[in-house]
Amino acid sequence: MRPTWDEYFMNIVDMVKTRSTCMRRQVGAVIVRDKRILTTGYNGTPSGLKHCGEVGCLRDELKIPSGERHELCRGIHAEQNAIIQAAVFGVSIQNSTIYTNLSPCILCTKMIINSGITRIVTREAYNDSLALKMLEESGIEYVKLNV
How far apart are CA 138 and CA 125, in angstroms? Predict the structure, then answer.
């Protein structure tokens, strides 16, 4: 069977996330407008820096639970990387959709809101009630796929 557009782009997210350098969780993001891919991103350390696999995971060392103390990490989130790529290459992401295998944290949610993205499609919910509340308040469409 032919996949829907949401399924199609989510399948691409699954490929993008394989580039992740995070030792805890692989996350990918794809920003799309008019059924065309604008940018992609995956979670990992900033360009040119050693990966966590080389230097160890600070969050594991400090026993920081998932969803807490985002600032204590060498990595940057997939959604942030996809938005940054748009800025680097001068690509407008106004009125676009972001696909990600994990719903955005509060930091990514605020960036998504300010970037002009109008729709989020995800597969797995991230435990961040403030992010979900802000998404609802912003009017951004939030779709959780059951695939």
Answer: 18
Distance CA 48, CA 90 (A): 21
Q: What SS3 string covers the chain?
A: CCCCHHHHHHHHHHHHHHHCCCCCCCCEEEEEECCEEEEEEECECCCCCCCHHHHCCHHHHCCCCCCCCCCCCCCECHHHHHHHHHHHHCCCCCCCEEEEEECCCHHHHHHHHHHCCCEEEEEECCCCHHHHHHHHHHCCEEEECCC
Please indicate whether residue 79 is annotated as part of the active site.
Answer: yes
Q: Which of 61, 68, 79, 124 is catalytic?
A: 79
Q: What is the pTM of this model?
A: 0.93
142: burial class by Cβ within 10 Å (0-12, 13-18, 19+)?
middle
Per-block average pLDDT, block size 10, for the chain (147 residues)?
A: 96 97 93 98 93 88 84 90 97 98 94 97 89 94 89
